[in-house]
């Protein structure tokens, strides 16, 4: 067992004796470990990527408010087994805060949710459950009394993401603009820029609201029980005010993709309408109560926006020399970009089908 990690865990009020610490999951941002104990619970230890989340106080404030609020709602609704339905972070022994820092690294510990399963791909049935769960998640947070901040300012702002790509291209820090494929991808992206930045315009015109959203609704950020019900939504670092497009679009970006996010074989990548239909149906069953007509009409747009935005972000990172996302091989961010672009085009080709389905 890593002595340093063990010492860090010791700052938190864990129950029992730690018997093992090992890497967990495959997030692209934070470092995550499973902490096993001989007590009633195991735990999740995470090093928060402070290069990306610069205001950890704000980050943990958001998470504390959201988990407290959801816990209260579940209690009021008479739910049982609440510790498996909302994350619980342990207080740091000296400060009582939900994180510990030595001034250079930031760490937190939450209770590991027992008997939960994560998936990298889902069936239409499970996508339906996920839709219900995200609609409910947003609905539960609609009356959050606390003010949440943006843990990454303008996180899902397409205008900003396009600007960052433009800056990456101009700086060409890793010399990757010499590659004609990279140049062609950049041109294809900018040809669609105006159209893909419409949410920000609608927001400025006052016709599109922001709500508290999860903003990282990848399939593998939800915990399912053995029957396929959603227990809990995890990875709350990006919970913040955003457009509902974020949660709707990012779920489909991962779940409706018939291939992997970084699939090297583009023939595997397509947009699965059965997943879209099941998810949209589930989502509308819980979100209809608060969605405005403009939000609802633009859900198909959201399904295209997120592969597009992710292509922009992966490509910008590739051009910058891979400074943001964890990569497994040198061209990884380029491979990811190609796959997201293919998915974007596939989703665009289904826009009319999606709109027709939502009108029913
Ligand atoms: C990151 O940490 P992880 O892997 O859940 C990223 C998301 C991207 C995603 C792409 C804070 O999420 O926005 O959509 O990778 N999170 C952050 O897989 O940038
Ligand atoms: Mg994650």
Q: Please count the helical segments.
A: 13
- Average the pLDDT over all residues and give the rounded result: 95
- Residues in helices, as a percent range: 40-55%
Uncertain runs: none
Task: Describe this protein's structure.
The chain has 360 residues and is of the alpha+beta class. The protein folds into 2 domains: 3-109, Phosphorylase Kinase, domain 1 (2-Layer Sandwich), CATH 3.30.200; 124-359, Aminoglycoside 3'-phosphotransferase, Chain: A, domain 2 (Alpha-Beta Complex). The chain has 13 helices and 9 strands. The strands form 3 sheets. A 5-stranded antiparallel beta sheet has the order 1-2-3-5-4, covered by helices on one side. The chain has a two-stranded antiparallel ribbon with strand order 6-9. Strands 7-8 form a two-stranded antiparallel ribbon. Strand 1 and strand 2 (31-37) form a beta hairpin. The relative contact order is 0.13. The model has no long low-confidence stretch (mean pLDDT 95). Bound molecules: 2-acetamido-2-deoxy-1-O-phosphono-alpha-D-glucopyranose and magnesium ion. Residues 27-29, 52, 216, 218, 221, 235, 237-238, 261, 310 line the site of 2-acetamido-2-deoxy-1-O-phosphono-alpha-D-glucopyranose.
């Amino acid at each position: 067992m890593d002595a340093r990690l063990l010492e860090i865990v010791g700052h938190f009020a864990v129950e029992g004796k730690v018997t093992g610490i090992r890497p967990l999951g495959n997030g692209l941002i934070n470092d995550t470990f499973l902490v096993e104990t001989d007590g009633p619970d195991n735990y999740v230890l995470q090093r928060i990527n402070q290069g990306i989340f610069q205001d950890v106080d704000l980050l943990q404030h958001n998470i504390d408010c959201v988990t407290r609020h959801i816990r209260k709602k579940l209690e009021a609704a008479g739910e049982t087994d609440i510790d498996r339905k909302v994350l619980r972070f342990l207080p740091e022994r000296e400060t009582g805060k939900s994180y510990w820092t030595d001034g250079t690294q930031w760490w937190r510990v939450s209770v590991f949710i027992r008997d939960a399963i994560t998936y990298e791909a889902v069936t239409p049935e499970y996508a339906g459950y996920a839709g219900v769960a995200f609609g409910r998640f947003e609905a539960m947070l609609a009356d959050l009394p606390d003010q949440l901040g943006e843990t990454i300012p303008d996180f899902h702002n397409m205008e900003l993401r396009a600007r960052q790509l433009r800056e990456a291209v101009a700086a060409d820090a890793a010399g990757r603009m010499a590659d004609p494929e990279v140049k062609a991808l950049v041109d294809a992206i900018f040809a669609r820029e105006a159209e893909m930045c419409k949410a920000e315009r609608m927001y400025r015109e006052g016709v599109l609201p922001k709500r508290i959203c999860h903003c990282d609704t990848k399939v593998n950020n939800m915990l399912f029980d053995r029957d396929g019900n959603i227990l809990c939504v995890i990875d709350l670092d990006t919970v913040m005010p955003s457009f509902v497009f974020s949660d709707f679009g990012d779920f489909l970006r991962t779940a409706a993709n018939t291939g992997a996010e970084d699939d090297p074989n583009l023939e595997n990548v397509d947009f699965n309408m059965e997943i879209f239909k099941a998810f949209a149906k589930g989502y509308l069953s819980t979100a209809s109560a608060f969605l405005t007509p403009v939000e609802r009409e633009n859900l198909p747009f959201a399904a295209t926006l997120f592969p597009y935005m992710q292509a922009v972000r992966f490509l910008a990172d590739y051009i910058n020399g891979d400074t943001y996302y964890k990569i497994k091989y040198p061209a990884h961010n380029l491979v990811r970009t190609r796959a997201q672009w293919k998915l974007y085009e596939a989703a665009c080709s289904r826009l009319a089908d999606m709109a027709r389905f939502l009108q029913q």
